[in-house]
Design a protein that fits this description.
The chain has helices at about 1-25, 35-40, 50-70, 95-105, 110-140, 145-170, 175-185, 195-200, 210-240, 260-285, 290-295, 315-320, 335-365, 380-400, 400-410, 415-450, 475-485, 500-515, and strands spanning about 40, 80, 90-95, 255-260, 325-330, 330-335, 455-460, 465-470, 535. It is mainly alpha-helical and about 525 residues long. The strands form 4 sheets. Strands 1-4-9 form a 3-stranded antiparallel β-sheet. Strands 2-3 form a two-stranded antiparallel sheet. Strands 5-6 form a two-stranded antiparallel sheet.
Length: about 525
């Protein structure tokens, strides 16, 4: 009895302390208002984890990056190496390179942290890229998420700049070659190119200021912008309803899934530790960027088979494929073979990414809110454009290693370059047409399944003596998913108010191109209730 009374008193004191703490916090913070946030529904699907992988890779980047700043010396002052790596003893190098070698060999755990940082950077950029592809192919960039799409593309651009800046900091022969190429790109800009190069490098190449300036960008400005945009991106994800795949009970007016606390937070925390663990294992067993093997940078030397990280490989490929072409205007030489592939082409590519949600809305006339994900096959033109863009990028990426490919497969480098040039022109439109036909064929097949049912493989003989295959009806969930897609109508040729006749005809033509090929399904079924065990918001 005495023990029970003590337990009761202890429980009462604990309840009083908890209530007092909550009341104290609620008087100073929006604690009670956060209860609804903790019950926010998050739909479940493996593709939704791509953004979380990017987020947690960014967290690993921040943690490892802060540790590396304690030992890195961002200086281009010349020193003589006297560390523990014997092949470099007595060689002249910059302090930036020597400190990186010291981190790798003389700081306990330094090499592992360096490699974890590098692997995290690659995974971060890869996850952002694949996440953007998921958003594009499922139409999750449409209203009300256009701003989040713009933020995502900006994050990708900043991540590219951050990756290149960090890749260049060790001042080794490979990264120095990349900086040399970057300086050539700056010089190709008409009129102001020389001034841009002098400003960035602090004088004639290689100057003395580029590493300290890149260091400031890499650890302060770019991470600050990335952190701010990631925070804004997450706030908008919370504020707007999460997209979801069409299933019974899931509509454009709700979000069905697991509550944020405790299910979603538990799963997300487990994913963080998985990402952290995989990056740690990669850092321990997979060598990356062995700068001691490249040696310190010297402007008069270029290492054989120099290849940048994959995310700037498309720029390398575009430079290698562009034929030599230059003109002189008013005493200024315009290097088109550098300006077009390295300045104009990336600018056009990212301008298209920024503008696409608004272009599609203008072409299709679709101003409705969309919270259900499109299946890629249900938007053949958009899917075809995405696949064509991927093929375009893949050709440039492969062309960035044409010398390695020619050496490994013992083929002519000149022949391989022309193959890539022709592929860059022909492969994207072929990929678009094939992808569009495949999407339409898949939709036609689904219409047949709705009408006839699923094939069973069983044959029966008819009274006339022939044989027919028996079919079984699709289950309710499959029928709902197949019937839930909408088939927009192409816009009428008439121009809206305030729009010229020529613009109206162009808009109608593009709309017919988008939605002219149609495979209509049956009418959408009534909306069933969400499955049990899931939260609806």
């Amino acid at each position: 009895m005495l023990l029970k009374r003590r337990r009761a008193r202890a429980g009462a004191r604990a309840r009083y302390a908890a209530e007092h703490t909550v009341n104290w916090a609620d008087g100073r913070f929006p604690v009670s208002e956060g209860g609804g946030l903790l019950r926010k529904a998050f739909p479940e699907h493996w593709s939704f984890l791509l953004g979380e992988i990017a987020l947690y890779s960014f967290v690993v980047l921040l943690l490892t990056g802060v540790w590396l700043t304690l030992f890195f010396e961002p200086s281009m002052a010349e020193v003589v190496y006297d560390g523990s790596y014997e092949p470099l003893l007595g060689q002249s190098m910059s302090e930036a390179y020597r400190s990186t070698v010291d981190i790798s060999f003389d700081v306990r755990g330094g090499l592992m942290i360096r490699q974890a940082h590098h692997w995290a950077a690659l995974v971060f950029l890869s996850a952002i890229g694949v996440h953007l592809l998921r958003i594009f192919f499922t139409g999750a960039f449409r209203r009300p998420r256009e701003v989040n799409w713009l933020i995502g593309v900006t994050l990708f651009v900043l991540a590219l700049a951050e990756g290149f800046a960090g890749y260049s900091l060790p001042d080794d022969l490979l990264s120095g070659t990349g900086l040399r190429i970057a300086q050539g790109i700056m010089l190709s800009i008409p009129v102001v190119g020389t001034y841009v190069s002098m400003f960035v490098f602090g004088g004639e190449y290689p100057g003395d200021d580029v590493i300290p300036r890149l260091y400031s960008l890499h650890i302060l400005l770019l991470p600050g912008l990335l952190l701010a945009l990631v925070t804004l991106h997450l706030i908008l994800v919370f504020y707007l309803k999460h997209t979801q795949w069409a299933r019974p009970g899931r509509t454009n007016r709700n979000a069905v899934g697991k509550p944020m606390f405790p299910q979603f937070m538990t799963n997300s925390t487990g994913l963080f530790f998985m990402v952290f663990g995989v990056l740690t294992v990669l850092a321990g067993v997979a060598q990356i960027n062995p700068i001691w093997a490249y040696g310190p940078y010297r402007p008069d030397i270029v290492s054989f088979g120099s290849q940048p990280d994959w995310y700037v490989g498309f720029l390398e490929g575009s430079l290698r494929l562009m034929p030599p072409f230059e003109t002189t205007v008013a005493g200024h030489t315009v290097m088109w073979n550098v300006l077009v592939p390295a300045v104009v082409l990336p600018g056009v590519l990212f301008a298209v990414l920024y503008a696409y949600p608004f272009f599609e809305r203008w072409v299709t006339g679709d101003h409705e809110e969309h919270h259900l994900c499109d299946r890629p096959r249900d938007r053949p033109v958009r899917t075809g454009l995405g696949v064509a863009a991927i093929c375009f990028y893949a050709v440039l990426l492969l062309a960035g290693g044409n010398d390695i490919l020619a050496h490994v497969f013992d083929v002519s480098l000149n022949l391989l370059t022309w193959v890539f040039r022709i592929s860059l022109v022909l492969l994207p439109p072929i990929a678009f047409m094939v992808t569009k036909r495949v999407c339409l064929a898949l939709r036609e097949r689904e219409r047949e399944r709705l009408a006839e049912g699923e094939e069973t493989g069983e044959l029966r003989q008819t009274l006339a003596g022939g044989y027919v295959e028996s079919h079984t009806p699709l289950d309710a969930e499959q029928r709902y998913v197949l019937r839930s897609r909408t088939e927009p109508e192409p816009l009428a040729p008439a121009a809206p108010a305030g729009e010229g006749p020529h613009v109206g005809r162009l808009r109608a033509t593009l709309s017919e191109w988008y939605y002219g090929d149609r495979v209509d399904a049956e009418e959408t079924e009534s909306e069933p209730e969400p499955p049990s065990g899931e939260l609806e918001r």
